[in-house]
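So, read this over?
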Amino acid sequence: MSNATDIELMQQVRHGSESALREVIERHRERLFRLACRLLGDRDDASDAVQETFIRLWRHARRYDPRQSLAAWLCTICARRCYDELRRRQRHRKALAEMPVETAQPDTMGTDELLTLLHQVVTTLPPKQQVVYQLREIECLSTDEVARATRLNADQVKANLHVARTTVREKLKHYGI
């Protein structure tokens, strides 16, 4: 990997440099894959979302604003792709039903079990709330970055995040957590 900054690499990508694109992919692939896996819950769908993110980056490199973090811009593209997939799934299966979870008592659960339970609870949220929750709570994007990623205004992000947090908290209480 070179010492080039993301901005320098994106300038090269804009001019058709495939090697610069490969380096951008190497730098950001894992983070995007983790985001897509958390949002979609399926490694194959996540891999497709990440691949489509980089295809869109290549096709629309001129739209990148160097005043914005490249990581945040890529998360925005990936999150939008995941949000589209979640809406598609919802149309085909309606809203996800409450998932029964067979778990140990909360005080005997390990970290992995707690994370699995949290993931299951988050996947029961409506798609918009899932995306907002994941980007803000897991990816630690700012409210403005989440707003750009979801095409919501900041107040809508805050409202969706509040409802998502409240719902997650209530569902976790149901499991004694």
In short: Residues 95-104 have pLDDT under 50 and may be disordered.
